[in-house]
Amino acid sequence: xxxxxIQTFRGLAIAVAALGLSAACGSGSGNSADGGxxxxxxxxxxxxxxxxxxxxxxxxxxxxxxxCSTSAGGTGGGVxxxxxxVGGAGTGGVVGTGGPATGGAxxxxxxxxxxxxxxxxxxAPLPPPARGYSGGACPAIMPxxxxxxxxxxxxxxxxxxxxxxxxxxxxxxxxxWHWLAGNANDLASPMQEAANNWNFIGIVPEKxxxxxxxxxxxxxxxxxxxxxELTFFDDMYACVTAQYNLRLGCVGTIGVSAGALxxxxxxxxxxxxxxxxxxxxGGTGGGARLWGGAQHRLPAMVLWGGxxxxxxxxxxxxxxxxxxxLAANGHFVVECIHNCGHGVPPPEPGQGTNAIEGAIDxxxxxxxxxxxxxxxxxxxxxxxxxxxxxxxxxxxxxGNAVPRTGDCTGGFGI
Length: 414
Hints:
- This protein is α/β, with parallel strands linked by helices.
- It folds into two domains: 1-113, no CATH class; 144-413, Alpha/Beta hydrolase fold, catalytic domain (Rossmann fold, 3-Layer(aba) Sandwich).
- It contains ten helices and 13 strands.
- It has helices spanning 5-16, 22-25, 48-56, 61-68, 184-198, 223-243, 258-269, 315-328, 355-368, 380-384; strands at residues 144-150, 153-160, 171-177, 201-205, 246-256, 277-280, 300-304, 310-311, 313-314, 333-337, 343-344, 394-396, 412-413.
- The strands form three sheets. The chain has a nine-stranded mixed β-sheet, with helices on both faces. It has a two-stranded antiparallel sheet with strand order 8-9.
- A hairpin with a 2-residue loop joins strand 1 (144-150) and strand 2.
- Helix 3 (48-56) crosses helix 4 (61-68).
- It starts with a helix and ends with a strand.
């Protein structure tokens, strides 16, 4: 059975309840204007009031965003003995998770809420304005495949929206860059399901097709071609943010293989716009371009297939090089080593039967829990540990992952 987003979030939220914020949660009644941070609430609404009370009680941005992330909604909340899930009813429940219902149905949203689904704390750092579209006025950007002029060439990308998107609330977003023999269509379908499950906007660029490794991230690629691809990112970012309600400060980048080589470059070259980066069999050095130093120390997940992760180049060496650069500059890092070579490992128990869909679900949760406004090296997972559902071969910190063992049947190469 496919793992639901709330299963992955459950362990994270239980840990939040133990962060020492019980004094701020209190036992008083909430009201319909400011949500249910604490006690037996009678209303729901936005999380802003919850955040303000949490900050006033001494909570930091990580803990407060986590503690408040599921408070908006119907009757219930607070630390107690029951309550139904998100926005539940009855006599409460552990913050953000609830439990077996002891009362009526809750009135709030049932989609799990993460830090990137909430407004940033007052005064939080945010990205600068977009650089603007290099072609002048942006063309109309529609769900599905789009073509824009960028760098003097017609470039394509797929825009993925949740099926119930109405633009009324800002949503987080992520770019995802495909592998060497792939294309944007390979990722569009699993991204659509993930966008529906996790409530975010996906942007899936298509290769231009003029460089050996799909994206200009190797030592073979010229500086002008590298800058051209950065402009393509700038143009997509400018036009999507101009026409859709994208939450600035919650836009990450994900790359797979050749796309991960590019994500490692984009992660430093456009760090001022990115909230996180996820590098799946990529890296820096050793034939790839070197790490250039990030202006914004964004959190990173670095995953590879162990010592046999080879395809023309050794991706283990490149991943280790990237990790050392990230650690030396104070980035928060989650390390994952699946030991299935250059490919996607089979799903872990509870992740269904589709390897790529299970992988996307696991990594999107990382992106949604690491907004731009976190301090360098900060992560909610520093306090809570990795959430339930994270692959067992992942760990916080460089050199800490325990590599996966066992059969790799059910995965696939990239």
